[in-house]
Amino acid sequence: MSRSIYEGFATLYGQRVSISPLGKADLVAFTRYRAEPAIARYQGWQDYQLSDAEALFAGQCALPFPHPDSWYQLAIHDAGGELLGDLALHWLTAQEAEVGFTLAPASQGQGYASEALKLLLAWLFGQGCLSVTAAVDTRNVPSYRLLERCGFTRTSCHKDAAFFKGEWYSEYHYRLERHHWQGAGDKTSHKT
């Protein structure tokens, strides 16, 4: 029987960050950074409100984990418990996942996203996932550079992929196969 993400995902610990299911206590900080126009620019939301975060959280609580074609939000916390950002985990199939990431402005450029993404990748590949994909707006240079630093390979570019927020945008697609994963030496621990 499948379990809720809040019962089935053990917290992952790195050197400076931890990853756990997004919690109710995270919602105010989560809303604060998602409401910033610079953060929302390349994302599927705008004018993010606390009610949006509460609805997302309620929906997450009802989802079995893992479940194909379902998205899950995972909180990235620092050692003091402050919310730095979040990872999005989309189970495509039992052996393939898609990831995304969003960091609060004050947390960007310090290596937190890289550490968090590597923790998640190590966990996914340890769970039997064979490949992980990601899609990023071609104008979002820090995001695609992060994917490349973590070992992802750009597989395609979709020019004028969609009309989004009043303009056409193009999108890079990335993929990382388990047999190419170089993160096996990363220091991670799991706590249930």
From TrEMBL:
Keywords: Transferase. Transmembrane segments: none annotated. The keyword Transferase applies. InterPro entries: Acyl_CoA_acyltransferase (IPR016181), GNAT_dom (IPR000182), N-acetyltransferase (IPR051531). Pfam families: Acetyltransf_3 (PF13302). Residues 17-179 form the N-acetyltransferase domain. One of its GO terms (molecular function) is acyltransferase activity, transferring groups other than amino-acyl groups. This is RimJ/RimL family protein N-acetyltransferase. It comes from Gallaecimonas pentaromativorans.
